[in-house]
Specification:
The chain is of the alpha+beta class and about 525 residues long. Helix content is about 20%, strand content about 30%. Strand 17 and strand 18 form a beta hairpin. Bound molecules: alpha-D-galactopyranose. Alpha-D-galactopyranose binds next to helix 5.
């Protein structure tokens, strides 16, 4: 009874956000079998990894899932009931889940939205044929979550796209429904479709993969970060962009490991360790247990950092931590290039005024205080992950198109969809394209902040096109229709200025065009001309 009470108190303590009383679910943390072992897993191996996780105290800093990936499948019997691999898991998975639970951890399992698993295709694991959830949704959900007691499932898509050509939203919705109907509690789902699947995913999964599988090399780390740079609008409490399992202690150089872990933390990705924990060196452990970095990942605001500057080859990313619009922010200077990169960051673009304290969270040491500008030179393949505390939080004046939430955006590449795309001459080098054409295809900035409210001049930078229209909606009741976006000779980016009224606090601005294409949008700026 005492134990249960303590458990309840701890849970309430760690998960309730006192001001709103809303439950907060951070990105999951733990260990997963795939990166090191692929389908070659077994009962003893999983138990030893769980033991090692506890032995190294990784559970104490938040790593509390042990996830069994592909490779446990045996066969379906005449009734269609799934059995585990007779050699790898002769005693089934129920006892493994129990063992994991007995260590105070949570247990994760794997399946496919279609009939066949990815391991059956890529690792010649013939037991994966017919082992996916397709046609067995209720049966497998009963087995995995009720009989065996798993808490989490990663649902892959090999069998669903290669053989069955299913439709993602419909398929994952069917599976979510089956799991919810069968399991007597909430089961956390990871959607593994290897690309941002669409905004529907947040109603189904706690996270969704945004890229092809991670590999233990720099090219892969850089590629996955690039896939996530403009997806911050889709992450939030309980639903996160999954940058895939960690490749720490798998052959990357030390600075590359720092970029990898630091950016996964700042971008609020799930943190699933992918190496052999029984032989992990102290240096990797130290990085994985860096609580100042982990705090960025598990921060109660649940935000993902977004790009505020892209100059030379470098990127600057920022997000609020601890308190929205507070004086404390997390910042990354990221150099993905193969040469040295100079960063010159006006603190104004970080919305920071006065003297600003700077702490390097990778090295866990304070750096000199700055005012006005932040200047650093970073070597190839490196990042500085900083916590910065300003004297004053400034009102933002600039909003990039690539920060906007696009309800119809996905990265599946099936249709010509609204998207974030590179654009020469655009601020940050990016724009939104294929906006408009229907009332639903809009871009939304839902935190356009005004300290006191008032009349502002809003200057919209766009890419000129013939015969386009743009509707700008400020909060619910303001709608302005702009016309004539025809290009002037040699003009790459044009601008138009309108007056808008902002309320004190956060405002919602939408841009789109209900009946024809809108011009591609680069960014907008705000200048206050009158108080309320
Ligand atoms: C896919 C996934 C991987 C892993 C394998 C298992 O490739 O993206 O993360 O789960 O399948 O076969």
């Amino acid at each position: 009874m005492k134990k249960i009470l303590l458990f309840l108190i701890l849970n309430i303590f760690s998960y309730s956000i006192s001001a709103t009383n809303k439950v907060f679910n951070p990105p999951i943390m733990g260990w997963s079998s795939w990166n090191t072992y692929r389908v070659n897993i077994n009962e003893d191996l999983i138990k030893r990894q769980a033991d090692a996780l506890v032995h190294h105290g990784l559970n104490k800093v938040g790593y509390n899932y042990i996830n069994i990936d592909d490779g446990f499948f045996g066969y379906r019997d005449k009734k269609g009931t799934m059995h585990t691999h007779p050699q790898r898991f002769p005693n089934g998975l129920k006892n493994i889940a129990q063992y994991i639970h007995s260590l105070g951890l949570k247990a994760g399992i794997y399946s496919d939205a279609g009939s066949n698993t990815c391991g059956s295709l890529w690792d010649n694991d013939i037991n994966g044929v017919g082992s996916g959830l397709y046609g067995h949704e209720y049966q497998d959900a009963t087995l995995y979550f009720n009989d065996w007691g798993f808490d989490f499932i990663k649902i892959d898509y090999c069998g669903a796209c290669q053989e069955l050509n299913l439709e993602e939203e419909k398929r994952y919705t069917e599976i979510r429904r089956a799991i919810d109907q069968v399991a007597g509690r909430h089961v956390s789902i990871n959607i593994c479709r290897w690309a941002f699947p669409g905004t529907w995913a947040k109603n189904i999964g706690a996270s969704w993969r945004i890229s092809a599988d991670i590999k233990p090399n720099w090219k892969s780390i850089k590629y996955i970060i690039s896939k996530n740079l403009y997806l911050s609008a889709y992450a939030g409490n309980g639903h996160y962009n999954d940058m895939d399992m960690l490749e720490i202690n798998r052959g990357l150089k030390p600075e590359e490991e720092e970029v990898h872990f630091g950016m996964w933390c700042l971008m609020s990705s799930p943190l699933l360790i992918g190496c052999d924990l029984t032989s992990i060196p102290d240096t990797s452990l130290k990085l994985l247990k860096n609580q100042e970095l982990i705090a960025l990942n598990q921060d109660p605001l649940g935000l993902q950092a977004y790009v505020v500057q892209h100059e030379n080859e470098g990127y600057v990313l920022v997000k609020d931590i601890e308190q929205e619009r507070g004086k404390m922010r997390a910042v990354a200077l990221y150099n993905p290039s193969d040469t040295t990169c100079n960063f010159n960051v006006p603190l104004k673009i970080l919305e920071m005024g006065g003297k600003v304290k700077v702490r390097d969270l990778i090295k866990q040491k304070d750096l000199p205080t700055v005012r006005g500008n932040l200047q650093y030179q970073l070597p190839a393949h490196s990042a500085l992950i900083l916590r910065m505390e300003a004297e004053e939080r400034l009102e933002p004046e600039h909003y990039e198109a690539e920060w906007a939430y696009l309800p119809l955006f996905n990265d599946l590449g099936k249709h010509r969809n609204v998207l974030y795309a590179p654009q020469e001459g655009a601020s940050g080098g990016m724009k939104i394209g294929y906006l408009g054409g229907s009332a639903e295809n809009y871009a939304e900035w839902n935190k356009v902040y005004s300290e006191k409210g008032g009349i502002y001049e809003m200057t919209i930078q766009y890419i000129p096109h013939k015969d386009r229209k743009l509707e700008v909606i400020v909060n619910r009741d303001k709608s302005i229709l702009l016309k004539n976006f025809n290009p002037k000779k040699d003009e790459k980016i044009s601008s138009i200025t309108i007056q808008i009224r902002l309320q004190p606090g956060n405002n919602v601005i939408r841009m789109g065009s209900s009946y024809c294409w809108a011009p591609d949008i680069d960014c907008f700026t705000l200048e206050k001309i009158e108080s309320r």
